[in-house]
Each structure stands twice: as C-alpha cells, then as structure tokens.
Amino acid sequence: MQKRFEGAPDIKPWLAGAMVFAILAVAGALANPYLISLMTIVLLFTFLGQSWNLMLGIGGQLSIGHALFVALGAYSVAVLDVKYGISPWIGLLLGMFIAGCAGAVLAWLSFRFEVRGIYFALLTIAAAEFARIMFSGWEFVGAMQGLFFPAPTNAIEFAMLRGDARFYYFVALALAALGIVGTELISRSYLGYVWRAMRDDEQAARALGVRTFRHKILVIAISAATAAVGGGILALVQGSIFPDSIMGMGPSVDVLIGPVVGGLGTTFGPLVGSLAAIPLNHLMGALGDSLRIPGLNNIAYGIVLVLVVWFLPDGIWPAMVRLSKAIRPPSRVWLPQPRKAEE
Amino acid sequence: MTALLDVKQLSKSFGGLVAVNNVSFALEAGRITALIGPNGAGKTTCFNLVAGALRPTGGQVFFEGRPIENTPPELVCRMGIARTFQIVRPMRDMSVLENAMVGAFSWTTNVNEARSTAYESLESVGLAGKADARTDQLTLPDRKMLEAAKALSTRPKLLLLDEVMAGLRPTEAAGVVRVLQRLAEAGLTILLVEHVMRIVMEVASRVVVLHHGAKIAEGSPSEVAMDPRVLESYLGAGFHA
Ligand SMILES: Nc1ncnc2c1ncn2[C@@H]1O[C@H](COP(=O)(O)OP(=O)(O)OP(=O)(O)O)[C@@H](O)[C@H]1O
Ligand SMILES: [Mg+2]
Q1: Interface ipTM
Q2: Which residues of chain B neighbour A209 with C-beta distances below 8 Å?
C-alpha cells in the first residue's frame, strides 16, 4: 500500500530529456553558422532562465534585476581574462562567489527590514541600475568602452574556454543540460519542497517549521551564482561586454522571457520559452531591418508575450503536457512540478 | 510534574481592543484540553500567541519550562508545537501529499522519509485516498483535515487544533475523535478549539472557557457545563451548539 509512495525514480523523463539533448548535439554538428550562433544564445538564455526560474518559480522571490548577477559573472570572467590572462574557469568561480554574495547581501538587507514581494523586486532593479551606473564610470572595468576578449581562433583551447562558434554552442548545450538536471534535482530534494511551500504561503510554511529567512537568502544566492556562470559564458560568446549591453533593464527582461513564456516553475519551461521567443526576436529584427521598421522585433515580442499570457497563462510547456495527456490518456504522463496543470 | 505548556497572565491588545486578557492555564502532557468560548472570545488569538505568530502585550508562555513568547513561529514549531489555521492555508500549487510532506522537513531532509510520514499523517485523518489531488479539489472539511495532517507531519509534542472538525458529518467527526484519542494515548498533548459541545464533552479531559478575552472557567467538561457563568456567556451570545 505504501509502496506507491516510495518514490522510485521515474526513468522516462530523463530519457526524453536526454533524447532532446542528443538531437541538439547532432544539430550542432551539422547546422550552419547562423543557426549555431542563434541556438547558442537560446541555450544560454535557457540556462539563465533556469536560474531566474529557480528564484521565482520555486523560491517565490521575484527579481527584475537579474542582469546584475549575469553581469557580475561576465565582468569577473572578462577582467581576469582580458586584463590578466587568467583562465575563464577561474573567472567563473570568482563570478559565482561575487554574485552569490551580492545576492545574499541584497536578500539579507531586504528581508531583515521586511522589504518583500514586489518591493524586493524593485530593490533588485535599483541594485542593477546602481551597478550599471557605477560600472559605466569605472575605468578599471573599461567604463563605457567596455572590455574586449582576444579575437576568436579556430583552435579550441579548453583551459582558456576559447574556440569557434561551434565550440561555444556545445558549451552552451552542456550548460543548459546541467541547468535542467540541476533544477530537477533541487526541486525533488527537500529544498524544492520547502521552497515551494514558502512560495505558496510564507506564514503557513513558517508554522510548519520552515526557516524562511535563511531559505529565501539561500535560493537567491544560488540563483545569483548560477546566473553569473551564464553571464561569464555569454561574455565569452559575445566577445565583448559593455555596461549597457549586459546590465541594463533590457538584459534583465531577456532573462525572464524564457521562463515566463515557457512556464513558470517548470523544468523545461525556460528551454521551450527561449526556443520560441529568441528566434522570433531575431527573425523580426532581421525583417524589421529589411523593411526599415526598426523596433519591429520589440513589437513582435510584446505581442507574443501578451498572446501567451492571455491564452496560456501558465506557459507553453504545461500546455504541451496537457495536450500530450489528452492525446494518450491511459499512460502516466510526467509533468515536472505542475503548476495549475489543468484549468 | 511541571506542565508541558504553561500560559501565564497572557494578554494581547489590538489597538484599544483587548483580545486576550490576563489568561493563565497549564496543559499536562498526554491530555486533550478544549479551549471554548463564543465567537470573538480570543481563542484563535491565544493560539497565535502560543505558536509565535503574534507577540503578546503581556504575560509569558513556557513550553517544557522554557519561555517561548518571543520565539518566531518556525522555531516554536521546531521545539514541538504544531498548529492548524482556522482559516485554512493550503499550499495551492502543491498536491495534498506534498502539503503534508512540508512539516516533516522540520526534522528530516530525507524526501522518502518525509513522504512516508506525510502518508501516515494523511491516513490518520482519512485523506490518504486523496494524496495525489490538488488542494482546490478538496472540500472545506477535507481542507481542515489537511491542516491537521500538515501539523502532524512535524511530529509535535503539542498539537493546537483550531476548529478542524467544523463541517464534518457526525460519523466523520467520531472518526477524527478516535484518532485524537489514539494520538493522546501515544503521548501527544492536544489543545483544541471546538464549538460542538458534544465533541468537547466526549474528547476533552479538561476545558478552558474564554469570554471577551478573559478566562471565565476551567475544569472537567461536566463541571464547566454546569458553571452558571459559562451558561450565561453562551446563552448571551446565542448558544448554538
Ligand atoms: N489581527 C487582528 N487585528 C485586530 N483585531 C483582531 C485581530 N485578530 C483578532 N482580532 C479581534 O480579537 C478578538 C478575538 O478574536 P479571535 O479570532 O481570537 O476570536 P475567536 O475566539 O477565535 O473567535 P471565533 O470563534 O469566531 O474563531 C475579536 O474581536 C477579533 O475581531
Ligand atoms: Mg477563532
């Protein structure tokens, strides 16, 4: 009787996920350079979306200034590499540490003084804007002129994380896979349960012994540290960073489009959402350029966002799961962390 | 023997309103005590004070001899006091089973252990068959029982139940009463708020009566039922049990 609840690991979703990534790997070996670089961005934003999603979708803490943590990772990698020739691997570790601490301090200050919910979100914007303005005037990190990595070579140097576009595609693919596996493992661990409890009702969670103060700080620090890893790789892929390109409101919004469109709090939402939103953005950007309608991509972005929020309020991925459930009703379909799975 | 919970001259005012006024009582381990009183008497406020959800304006609360009146709710829970909410607070986007698992993480980080504990808690309140349901698929009486299951999963020494049997059919309520009696026999101390006098008479070994925030009587169920002040307060407020 109790057997049913003993939590035998369900193999099927892992198999399905592995297949998706195998296909993406083969595609990476075959696709043309334009697609490769587009997909690299999609996968990096999948990873960044996972990081943001961990914080809001599972931890219940909204950040609209996630670019701050992305940028701390990007600058850690860039400063060490460009100015001192130190490996980006070290830069990534440093970035994780700095961003994790920044997230923890921001969270601690905020919750210590009972700043929460939407006010905390405003604080994240303020922190990101403050950092952008500071970095814009800070000569050591290149100020407005930014930092430029050495020109890309065709020789792959793993120790320095240097290589061609295809190399970065595979780095991004590995990162996205890591993000999905990591999110799934966290959300199945006790942290996933207490964080979701805290997200749904903080007072009720506290009454059940959840030490929400420290768990909020923890989820924000982890989210910030992982965002920094994505930021460090993003900087390498782009070859240069500027305060405005990586720290403003724009990148903060880019980070959250994937999970919002794909499905908040779901493991595969950020991937599905990024796959839908980023190519559309590029396509519309190109179309806008050829039609001489600058900003067409932003309009298209806005329209898609409104449509998704209107028709699929819980995102594309839960809708896909519902659909597959409807198509083959008897089999048990796996739904990662269902949020309002059917309505 | 010292009491498990010792409430001493506890008071709480909201602005000018004195919701709890100089209330003292003690709970002996392994007993079921009922906290009764007309609507607005201050019962839920008492629970909130004991559970750390509210700070008292005066008085003290001792649990196992230690003062807890300024301890935050999550630590009070970890010391061994679990409470339910009169206005139910399920975690909306978690299943019934997952809701019941949360409390177990106050003493374990093992997910399988939490799951089997949660399942036992659900079984003891008759919700095991609905373990995979979403909480918005539950009826209100079921949601009240889920509150009790969530609290039980924390493995408390003292359980505070705020009107969890409201809306249950008599046969269902009898089942819950049996569960409570079994838990008490196993050593759990229970303080319950309950409006149905029949249940109070059946389950409680002691009764504390509040009226307008003050304690007006305390004793065995039969003593309290004959107390003229109690009868008056209930009749005055429209006796409806
Ligand atoms: N947070 C609050 N702020 C202001 N007044 C409050 C608050 N909580 C309770 N009260 C008031 O305190 C008094 C006691 O309320 P309480 O909820 O403790 O009563 P109760 O005995 O639980 O009643 P019921 O049987 O209706 O649940 C009421 O007059 C109520 O309006
Ligand atoms: Mg009440």
Answers
A1: 0.92
A2: 74, 77-78, 103, 105-107, 154
